[in-house]
């Protein structure tokens, strides 16, 4: 099942896939398999493109009935000439990641240009049914949800309590922590960030064996031999 223009055998390709599934870096995989690091990077990029396409196609419709919403920066950096880090979107050079977590099932993330209600509303309306239970923090930009008939909204005030059994958003925050830890071992991801973001979606709450089997299917679908 070698890919088009590939000189690797089916067995060699599966060795690289197994290393990818257990989340080894390209350098680590190169040392294990004895393939050139550039070759590993090329295949890793193909795997991530396949996952990206699949995740985008999966979430064209509504996500679920009980969702947690949250937004975060992809690691805001200090801007030259300023001794402090940027707050929220003010002056930051980093884009914002908006996430939806369907409890115990799926995660959907998307890069947005700013944290305005317009940017967020386009994602919410495209992926969330009007009857969905929406769980958010107390950030004021979520107030518009009630105005557009999303009445099943539960809010958690982190300044008073962090965990509330009914309204907590620990699921999406746990995912955010997972994605940050995972990307940290790559010393930050500046190139093809969206591919890595969608890869984190796929890896979260998913079994490694299932990912390995599914990846073989995605390669056949998006990069047929």
Count of extended strands: 5
Would you list the SSEs in sequence order as H and E?
HHHEEEHEHEHHH
Describe the oligomeric state of these chains in a short phrase: single chain
CATH architecture of the largest domain: 2-Layer Sandwich
**Helix residue percentage:** 40-55%
Task: Could you tell me the CATH topology label of the largest domain.
Answer: Nucleotidyltransferase, domain 5
- Output mean pLDDT: 77
Coarse shape: elongated
Number of domains: 2
Strand content: 5-15%
Structural class by sheet pairing and helices: alpha/beta
Number of helices: 8
CATH class of the largest domain: Alpha Beta
- Pick out the low-confidence regions: 75-79, 88-92
Strand order in the sheet with the most strands: 3-2-1-4-5
Describe the model.
The protein folds into 2 domains: 10-59 and 197-222, no CATH class; 66-183, Nucleotidyltransferase, domain 5 (2-Layer Sandwich). It contains 8 helices and 5 strands, in the order αααβββαβαβααα. It has helices at residues 10-21, 26-33, 37-58, 117-127, 144-147, 170-184, 193-203, 208-222, and strands at 66-73, 96-102, 106-112, 133-137, 153-156.
Write the SSE topology:
Elements: H1 10-21, H2 26-33, H3 37-58, E1 66-73, E2 96-102, E3 106-112, H4 117-127, E4 133-137, H5 144-147, E5 153-156, H6 170-184, H7 193-203, H8 208-222
Parallel strand pairs: 1-4, 4-5
Antiparallel strand pairs: 1-2, 2-3
Helix pairs in contact: 2-3, 3-7, 3-8, 6-7
């Amino acid at each position: 099942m070698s890919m088009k223009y590939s000189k690797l055998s089916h067995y060699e390709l599966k060795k690289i896939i197994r290393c990818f599934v257990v989340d080894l870096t390209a350098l680590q995989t190169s040392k294990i398999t004895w393939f050139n690091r550039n070759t590993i990077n090329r295949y890793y990029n193909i795997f991530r493109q396949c996952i990206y396409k699949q995740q985008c196609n999966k979430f064209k419709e509504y996500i679920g009935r009980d969702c947690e919403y949250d937004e975060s920066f992809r690691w805001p950096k200090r801007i030259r000439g300023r001794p402090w880090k940027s707050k929220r979107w003010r002056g930051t050079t980093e884009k914002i990641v908006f996430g939806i977590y369907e409890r115990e099932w799926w995660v959907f993330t998307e890069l947005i240009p700013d944290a305005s209600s317009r940017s967020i509303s386009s994602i919410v309306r495209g992926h969330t049914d009007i009857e969905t239970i929406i769980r958010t923090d107390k950030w004021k930009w979520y107030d518009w949800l009630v105005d557009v008939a999303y009445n099943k909204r539960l809010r958690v005030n982190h300044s008073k309590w962090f965990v509330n059994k009914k309204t907590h958003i620990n699921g999406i925050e746990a995912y955010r922590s997972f994605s940050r830890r995972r990307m940290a071992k790559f010393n930050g991801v500046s190139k093809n960030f969206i591919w890595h973001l969608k890869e984190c979606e796929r890896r979260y709450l998913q079994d490694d064996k299932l990912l390995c089997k599914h990846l073989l299917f995605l390669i056949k679908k998006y990069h047929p031999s």
